[in-house]
Write a structure and sequence with these properties.
The complex is a heterodimer of chains A (308) and B (376). In chain A, 78% of the residues lie in helices and 0% in strands. With 308 residues, chain A is mostly helical. The longest helix of chain A is centred in the middle third of the chain and has 55 residues. The relative contact order of chain B is 0.14. The chains are: A mainly alpha (308), B mainly beta (376).
Chain lengths: 308, 376
């Protein structure tokens, strides 16, 4: 976690504590409402800043990603040309460009985590503010004031719904879309070859993504295996009451951590099994996408032979 | 399997199925897990522990048992949507032991266990989740041995609870629940005192939790328990009634390593002086991946209590005869074939009473195989 993120988190906790103190001390509803509105505005700014930081990180990542993809494309071209020296230089370039790509990927991950925290903080304060607004509307002196409060309520409610919808899409995969490269009757030999190379380069990038996804699936599978072995261990130890000792009657009830294994309705996090399945589906799409790219590249290369 | 156990299972299914009746058609049904278990162990027992629910004592200080077991457990999701879910889970098994070394006669205790539970969750707008749970657990023991080997007697336990868990408010979630429980122990002709363990109880509990991969939860609760077959020695209020306060905390970490550590304190007060005590319990569970696809699992539990009132007589509170107990399990697991895991486990348990230095101890080594059919 970055120093900035830690600072922001402290600020949210401090704000939450101040709000709670204000409510406990029984400040007039209007004053408490103003204080909460100020915190909503503050957290909106923080979310905006987190979004900007994320967009900047994403932009930087896309730049180095494209450079790295180009380097991979050069590796493929060099391999086909049979020029050993060129291949070595291409490998070195790809290696060099993988370092900034990794750095930017890390930065993107951190910015994503900060964005999630800022969004959650705003959701929390909006929920508190909506509660306050309901009480303020009940206590409103006239229809005009109630209408004014209702307008604020509607605005905050819409913002809350949008944020919640956004939060549910946290686990997103990149869409698989074929590049817009088509055969043009005016294409000459060089244009056709260039288009074939673009398609092959895209296929190489897809291959890298597939390998990356497969590594992630493997890692998730390892976690799933460990989690299952833990569940088997606890079930085996407790099945025949061997862990019940005759000292006190019963055991603590309630919301134990073990209940995480269970499915919970609402905005529940995806289980490991579901995440693995999603990624497998994604890999399937990527493989079909890569194969399609390679088929189209071959078509372009075959067309080169027919160009006079 | 005993008729009582079958009835208990049927009741569990009925209890669990009731919310499902109200679920819309077309909801997707899927298995969440299904595991078949087979295992064997060698166990050594020692001690002279006296329990109210064991009819006689054997003078043998040490006995050995060879044990085989079969088990199956699973979870079936009957309905799952963005706002609600309904799941039935079950667990059952049979364990057969051949115990040697008793002075009077050797024993072949056989245990049947079965449990089923239905769990329904429903989101309450953007505020949190409502949870309802009902379950039954049954246990039957044939040829239960004398107390050098201490194994729990047979019983049927039915319980239900409803609760709420809020969404995160600035990183903090709150939970609360109420529950009801009934335990009926199966007395047999030679051991009528098993009826002393029968109880009904109700409780409330509230908790607060915060954190991400590392979470902390504090909780507190209150429980009322009626032991309808135990006397209180108070003519105006003749049967034992306890009220128990429990507070505790639990820290959990869920990452590459998974760990839970919990401590809770219990203050038990009653209309009878005898079973009034204060107790403390600490529990730790750790799972860590090792090389070669292996994992290490550790479970440890320490419990001790102190009675409020002194007495010159041996104090045997039914079901709570020990003054302290320690338990440690250590297991190494790894896959040995597709969908098949093998586990080697060492287990140690010791319980003691201060009066007369009575104790029982169990030390065992076992091998277990857990098989998940293809698709799980």
């Amino acid at each position: 976690m970055t120093v900035q993120a830690r600072g922001a988190r402290r600020s949210w906790r401090l704000s939450g504590a101040l709000l709670a103190a204000a409510l406990v001390m029984g400040l007039p509803e209007a004053s408490a409402g103003q204080a909460t509105e100020a915190m909503v505005a503050e957290r909106q700014l923080e979310l905006r800043a987190a979004r900007s930081a994320y967009d900047a990180a994403l932009g930087a990542y896309n730049v180095v990603e494209r450079q790295w993809s180009a380097a991979l494309g050069e590796v493929n071209t060099a391999r086909r040309s049979g020029d050993t020296g060129r291949l070595e230089r291409a490998h070195a370039l790809a290696q060099d460009r993988s370092v900034p790509r990794r750095d930017q990927e890390k930065r993107l991950d951190e910015a994503g985590a900060a964005l999630v925290r800022a969004r959650q903080a705003l959701i929390d304060i909006l929920v508190a503010r909506l509660e306050q607004l309901v009480r303020e509307m009940d206590a409103a002196s006239g229809a005009a004031q109630r209408a004014q409060l209702n307008a604020i309520f509607t605005g905050h409610q819409a913002e809350l719904q949008a944020l919640e919808a956004e939060a549910e899409e946290t686990f997103r995969l990149q869409p698989v879309v074929l590049p817009e490269i088509t055969f043009d009757p005016r294409d000459g030999r060089d244009e056709l070859l260039a288009k074939a190379e673009i398609l092959e380069r895209s296929a190489a990038v897809a291959d890298t993504t597939i390998r990356d996804q497969e590594r992630q699936i493997q890692s998730l599978n390892e976690r799933l295996r460990t989690q299952r072995q833990r569940r088997d261990f606890l079930a085996g130890a407790e099945r025949f009451d061997d862990t019940r000792v005759p000292v006190v009657t019963g055991a603590p009830t309630g919301d134990r951590t073990a209940a995480r294994d269970s499915t919970v309705a609402g905005a529940r996090p995806l289980s490991l099994e579901e995440r693995i399945q999603l990624k497998r589906d994604y890999v399937g799409q990527l493989q079909a996408y890569r194969d399609e790219l390679l088929i189209r590249a071959q078509q372009f290369r075959r067309a080169v032979g027919s160009v006079t | 399997m005993s008729i009582r156990l079958c009835r208990a299972f049927a009741l569990a299914v009925a209890l669990g199925a009731s919310p499902w009746v109200a679920t819309e058609a077309g909801a997707q049904v899927r298995w969440r897990d299904l595991v078949l278990t087979m295992g064997g162990s060698v166990e050594g027992y020692s001690g002279n522990f006296s329990a109210v629910n064991v009819s006689r004592a054997d003078s043998a200080e040490h006995v050995v048992a060879v044990v085989g077991e079969l088990g199956m457990r699973g979870a079936l999701v009957l309905a799952e949507s963005r706002t609600r879910s309904f799941e039935i889970s079950f667990d059952g098994g049979m364990r057969q032991a051949a115990a040697f070394g008793f002075q009077r006669q050797d024993y072949s205790p056989r245990e049947w266990v079965g449990s089923a539970a239905g769990r329904y969750t429903q989101s309450a707008g953007s505020w949190g989740t409502l949870l309802a749970q009902a379950g039954v657990r049954g246990r039957a023991v044939r040829d239960r041995p004398l107390s050098t080997i201490f194994i729990q007697p047979g019983y049927t336990n039915v319980q239900g609870s409803v609760g709420v868990r809020t969404r995160s408010f600035d990183g903090v979630t709150f939970d609360a629940q109420v529950d009801l429980e009934s335990a009926d122990y199966q007395s047999v002709e030679l051991v009528p005192q098993l009826d002393l363990l029968d109880r009904t109880s109700s409780g409330i509990e509230a908790g607060v939790r915060w954190g991400g991969p590392s979470t902390m939860r504090f909780y507190g609760g209150f429980r009322w328990t009626d032991h309808g077959n135990q006397v209180s020695f108070d003519p105006d209020d003749p049967y034992r009634r306890d009220h128990t306060t429990r507070v505790g905390m639990e820290w959990a970490y869920d990452g590459e390593i998974s760990a839970q550590v919990g401590v809770d304190g219990t203050v038990n007060r009653s209309n009878s002086n005898r079973p009034e005590y204060d107790a403390v319990s600490a529990r730790a569970v750790l799972t860590a991946p090792l090389s070669h696809e292996m994992s290490l699992n550790v479970y440890a539990l320490l419990t001790a209590k102190s009675y409020v009132h002194d007495t010159d007589f041996p104090r045997l509170v039914p079901g709570e005869e020990a003054d302290n107990a320690s338990l440690a399990y250590l297991q190494v697991s790894r896959p040995v074939a597709v969908n098949l895991d093998a586990a080697f486990r060492l287990a140690w348990t010791r319980a003691e009473t201060y009066f007369g230095s009575a104790y029982y101890q169990r030390l065992g080594a076992s091998v277990q195989f857990n098989y998940r059919p293809r698709g799980f």
